């Protein structure tokens, strides 16, 4: 799907994300666990309305990126509510041009399902992250349960066009191909994963 069309789909969802932003939801505990040790100069890709912003504890600066103008509008509001330096940029993650080794920590929550080229984005994250830095991911993908996985595969062509997000990506395989994974925790029939990784450098 072309990025302009996809960003418009997310624009339509932005109000819903904003409503959920400050609520304790089923995934709040998982987000907190993943982000507990995020530190230094942090990049958050596809940050949505800024749900993760209050969960960071040890930030020097946060750069948050999203390509949906509506998500960015809300995220800029969320950035005003935190006490650390937080910059929100409207850009397609696949077009970003950061320097090599620019960030101590890179975070993505629920975004690998959306990119046309997730391999490329993971490669970029590896490049932008300092050696020994952290790449922290909370992602969903194809279930480890065969029945659920077949359903995801069947629904994917229809739903991905409507919601801008793929249901059937093998996230663990994708990440293992590009990053040095140090820990994985899977939930909900192996559909959601917390992944702690570092670049190969
Ligand atoms: C499922 S939402 C997750 C939002 C947020 N990360 C969270 O955890 O609540 C996916 C987000 O990715 C953004 N997104 C998808 N593809 C993108 C791209 N290529 N560049 C920038 N943002 C993108 C969407 O606009 C949306 O805000």
Automatic annotation (TrEMBL):
Entry superkingdom: Bacteria
GO aspect biological process, one term: methylation
CDD domains, per database record: AdoMet_MTases
The UniProt record lists the keyword Transferase: yes
Keyword list, A-Z: Methyltransferase, Transferase
One function term, GO molecular function aspect: S-adenosylmethionine-dependent methyltransferase activity
Pfam family of the protein (one): Methyltransf_11
Domain Methyltransferase type as annotated: residue spans: 43-136
Protein name as it appears in the record: Class I SAM-dependent methyltransferase
Organismal lineage: Bacteria, Bacillati, Bacillota, Bacilli, Bacillales
